[in-house]
């Protein structure tokens, strides 16, 4: 009997990353009729996992999550890598391709520690290290104080319990994947915009690896891919890095995509928003929206953009 095909799937080892890798494996096996043991999970330690005490933006940004997996992928030690697309830089090595985007989960953020944004007591300390969450919060509630908080989902929930902050934000998708789908208050994504590519799991492979590309094609969800690529095109057009407070939400309107985007000054005092309705194949539309937002931004705000990373 010929040996069964198999795939080495690289993942980070945080509980969220592992939950996402298990979901990817389950979908691959279901789509290809494989047994579970045909997908080998390979746990790769990312540089970002070793540093928990400083904001991501200060220590090298999103590359901290991808660099190690990229290396293993390019060296052929794994065949594919699972990522939260929110954490993947817009500029990717040429040798690496996005092979699949899984059906996207709930894009909303969840507020922990208060029943609503308006119910956070005046002067409270809200824990977040995400520039988008900090700026968007201060825009709505300039009376609040933002304090840095990092670590995986469980660590952040524990820090909240320990009183390091009075409230914090987490992605609904991450909470649900960890079986914590009922905690906190879900914030309507139309009013509190998520991060570009939030709630999307992506699988990357070597661009020239046709066999793996075909395997991944079997679990690619086209509508989710279209949304994620549009939001990533916006981010690229903005020169978005982890230093830049950028929020985006895509809705489907019939055959078209409706993209709402906002950029902020880091202190939240300035918010510039715009929207665009376009055909999914029209990758220039999100870039054009990015240019419109930048053109509207005062120079000191625009200065925070344009550094890809
Ligand atoms: N920055 C960390 C990160 N990357 C992806 C998720 C959640 C899952 C997702 O958005 O796909 C989280 C945690 C969070 O923001 O609460």
UniProtKB/TrEMBL annotation:
Binds 1 dipyrromethane group covalently. Residues 227-294 form the Porphobilinogen deaminase C-terminal domain. Coiled coil: none annotated. It comes from the Bacteria. Keywords: Porphyrin biosynthesis, Transferase. HAMAP family: Porphobil_deam. This is Porphobilinogen deaminase. It comes from Qipengyuania vulgaris. The lineage of its organism: Bacteria, Pseudomonadati, Pseudomonadota, Alphaproteobacteria, Sphingomonadales.
């Amino acid at each position: 009997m010929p040996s069964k095909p198999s795939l080495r799937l690289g993942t980070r080892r945080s509980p969220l990353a592992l939950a996402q890798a298990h979901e990817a494996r389950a979908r691959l096996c279901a789509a290809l009729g494989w047994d579970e043991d045909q997908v080998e999970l390979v746990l790769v330690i990312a540089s970002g996992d070793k540093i928990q005490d400083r904001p991501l933006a200060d220590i090298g940004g999103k590359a901290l999550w991808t660099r190690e997996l990229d290396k293993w992928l390019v060296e052929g030690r794994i065949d594919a890598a699972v990522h939260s697309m929110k954490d993947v830089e817009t500029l990717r090595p040429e040798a690496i391709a996005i092979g699949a985007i899984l059906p996207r989960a709930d894009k909303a953020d969840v507020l922990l520690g208060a029943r609503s944004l308006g119910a956070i007591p005046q002067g409270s300390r809200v824990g977040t290290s995400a520039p988008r969450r900090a700026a968007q919060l201060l825009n709505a509630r300039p009376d609040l104080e933002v304090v840095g908080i990092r670590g995986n989902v469980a660590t952040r929930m524990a820090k909240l319990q320990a009183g390091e902050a009075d409230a914090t934000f987490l992605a609904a998708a991450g909470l649900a994947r960890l079986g914590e789908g009922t905690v906190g208050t879900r914030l309507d994504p139309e009013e509190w915009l998520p991060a570009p590519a939030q709630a999307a799991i992506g699988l990357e492979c070597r661009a020239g690896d046709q066999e793996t590309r075909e395997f991944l094609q079997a679990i690619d969800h086209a509508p989710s891919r279209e949304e994620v690529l549009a939001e990533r095109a916006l981010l690229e057009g903005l020169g978005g890095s982890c230093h830049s407070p950028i929020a985006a939400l895509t809705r489907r309107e019939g055959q078209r995509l409706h993209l709402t985007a906002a950029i902020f000054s880091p202190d939240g005092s300035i918010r510039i928003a715009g929207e665009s309705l376009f055909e999914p194949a029209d990758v220039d539309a999100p870039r054009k929206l990015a240019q419109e937002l930048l053109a509207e931004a005062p120079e000191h705000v625009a200065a925070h953009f344009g550094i890809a990373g």
